[in-house]
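User: Design a sequence. Structure:
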């Protein structure tokens, strides 16, 4: 099929490669404008744009597609480009811009979205983070027919995936990106065969995955250890869970829940800190064994290496 692809991060780039490798003709790629990144804050192309340029696929980067928005001239130009580009369908994956009805109605077969959750659970911007943070036992990918709502369209394909005890957003993202690529290829195969029925989303079980903010990274050790352990995994690699020790804000990358005597230690206090066992911190209930940490300007280090230069025995997280 001839496809217009809209996406921006690595999750989308994996799907774009899967479609390309499956022999589909990508006639145009839409992706977010280049953004400053890194210490030099130089402009960087998105992973989707990098793939497109490497494979001589035309790229457009409108700042908006809304004709009634702040950039109507840009949106009008983008609409004209979409209408002039030969295609059968649009595939969308983590694009980052709202697709108005005026865009959704352009492709002959509409717009299919690769969404990283088992809809209707975790509609919205951060479904992988929120599933881990909430302690969900499983997640998955939904291929959805897009409509005007926020991830409210009919479901075309859905496949479950377990969330492992040690999964971070980073590790789960990579597994789900691969699954999403495989599933969109399968969805288009079925569509070409006329065998892709749509199922409306149930009205019950709707939850929303709000965008992750950096403010959420600060850990409150009065919470149960299980809750904090999930937050650390959910915020790895972004925005990275953080806590302040002796006036220094440390990033906490890996931790496991351990048992401790209830009420014996003040939440946030360091129960022990040694190279073998890591840094064990008292929580509202239970404790966390922190095994990977990072100080400002430093590298992510296993607890054994970190403690050589940053002793923590007997201290307390504020």
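Assistant: Done.
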């Amino acid at each position: 099929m001839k496809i217009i692809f809209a996406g921006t991060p690595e999750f989308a780039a994996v799907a774009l490669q899967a479609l390309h490798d499956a022999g589909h003709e990508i006639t145009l790629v839409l992706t977010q404008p280049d953004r400053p990144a890194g210490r030099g804050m130089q402009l960087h192309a998105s992973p989707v744009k990098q793939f497109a340029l490497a494979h001589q696929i035309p790229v457009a980067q409108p700042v908006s597609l809304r004709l009634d928005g702040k950039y109507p001239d840009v949106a009008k130009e983008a609409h004209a480009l979409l209408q002039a580009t030969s295609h059968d369908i649009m595939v969308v994956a983590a694009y980052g811009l709202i697709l108005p009805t005026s865009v959704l109605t352009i492709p002959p077969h509409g717009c299919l979205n690769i969404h990283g959750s088992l809809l209707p659970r975790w509609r919205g911007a951060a479904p992988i983070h929120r599933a881990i943070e909430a302690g969900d036992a499983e997640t998955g990918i939904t291929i959805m027919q897009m409509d005007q709502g926020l991830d409210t369209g009919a479901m075309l394909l859905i496949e479950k995936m377990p969330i492992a005890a040690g999964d971070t957003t980073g590790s789960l993202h990579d597994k789900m990106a691969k699954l999403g690529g495989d599933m969109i290829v399968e969805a288009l195969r079925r569509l070409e065969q006329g065998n892709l029925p749509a199922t409306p989303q149930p009205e019950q079980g709707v939850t929303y995955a709000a965008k992750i903010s950096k403010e959420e990274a600060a850990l409150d050790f009065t919470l149960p250890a299980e809750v904090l352990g999930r937050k650390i995994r959910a915020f790895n690699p972004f925005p990275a869970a953080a806590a302040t020790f002796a006036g220094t804000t440390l990033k906490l990358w890996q931790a496991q829940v351990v048992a401790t005597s209830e009420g014996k230690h003040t939440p946030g206090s360091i129960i022990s800190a040694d190279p073998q066992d890591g840094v064990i911190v008292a929580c509202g209930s239970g404790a966390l064994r922190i095994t990977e940490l990072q100080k400002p300007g430093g590298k992510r280090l296993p607890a054994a290496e970190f403690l050589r230069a940053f002793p923590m025995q007997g201290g307390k997280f504020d």
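The domain at 214-309 is CATH 3.10.25.10 (Methionyl-tRNA Fmet Formyltransferase; Chain A, domain 2). The chain has eight helices and 17 strands.
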